[in-house]
Specification:
DNA binding (chains A, B); mainly alpha; about 150 residues; DNA-binding; two-stranded antiparallel sheet; homodimer; binds FE2/S2 (inorganic) cluster
Chain lengths: ~150, ~150
DNA sequence: TTCAAAGTTGACAAAAATAGTCTGCTATGA
DNA sequence: TCATAGCAGACTATTTTTGTCAACTTTGAA
């Protein structure tokens, strides 16, 4: 079980926007350089994020992207849901395999528990939390250096 | 984020063995029929499970597989670790991308939290738990039917 | 007004992972 | 001794992931 690059890149890109929140928009190009992600690939991801209403685009010269809500109101789960899709462990649709008899399915409850656990974690961490963590990390590192 | 068929099939197969624990060994063929999984594919999975020491094989006529420990001592996490590999969110090795500067990495802490959460859930649920859940489900269903 | 920066869209494709199949083999209990 | 069942590993097909690219649209700024 792993996160694809869509999720990983997406969170990193959104983190950049969160760091920059309140200032001028960030262009795809800028973000792609900062996080070392393909510009073209990022465009795809931002297409999804925009459709989902997580970011707003500002066209024209000096345009770019901004968060459509404050970082405190966007969770990592919101981003991952858009880019990775909701966690689908099993189909639960096909009526032919024996897994469709939900009442008797031994594993269904298990998948639900795993999914809920991940959702609980990802939806409880906001971009603001990440920015705060990041800033305290930097302060601690500075202190360690004796600055 | 999703579980591959390896993990899903593997847990289902191990659940069958747990249901059958204490009785005669179950052959790949039997399991493949009960859970409707390709016989050849299951062989692959059981190869891994055997090497990991989760199951024992009994060769020859009337042979098959049995759990090598009681169901209460095998967690779902044990199975998933073998079949899906441990949860690798990011590489954290390549020194060239900016993600390698772990002290400054904004997302690393996040991936760790997600991973730990999944591990905590999967490693706390044993095959015995699943069997118990399954049995209570059946009882409840029977009562609802007025039996 | 013109131009260049920047977003938008959708097609395309390489690469990797997943899922599944098959063949020939070995071991062993009945 | 032979049918049953596991063992090993090559092989293939399919899907998903991970990008790339080109043509087009919008719009702020000079
Ligand atoms: S009913 Fe969907 S996992 Fe069993
Ligand atoms: S250092 Fe591995 S995720 Fe950043």
């Amino acid at each position: 079980m792993k996160l694809s690059t869509r999720g990983r890149y997406g969170v990193k890109a959104m983190f950049e926007l969160a760091l920059n929140y309140g200032s001028e928009p960030l262009s795809i190009k800028t973000i792609s350089e900062k996080q070392n992600i393909s510009e073209y690939y990022l465009e795809q991801l931002f297409g999804s994020l925009r459709k989902a209403g997580l970011v707003k685009s500002i066209r024209g010269a000096q345009g770019g992207y901004v968060l459509s809500r404050p970082p405190s109101e966007i969770t990592v789960g919101d981003i991952l849901d858009v880019l990775e899709g909701p966690i689908e462990i099993s189909e639960c649709i096909d009526d032919e395999d024996n897994c469709s008899r939900i009442e008797y399915c031994a594993t269904r409850l298990l998948w639900i528990k795993i999914r809920d656990s991940v959702n609980q974690v990802t939806h409880s961490i906001t971009l603001e939390d990440m920015v705060n963590d990041y800033k305290s990390m930097n302060i601690i590192t500075s202190i360690k250096r004796g600055e």
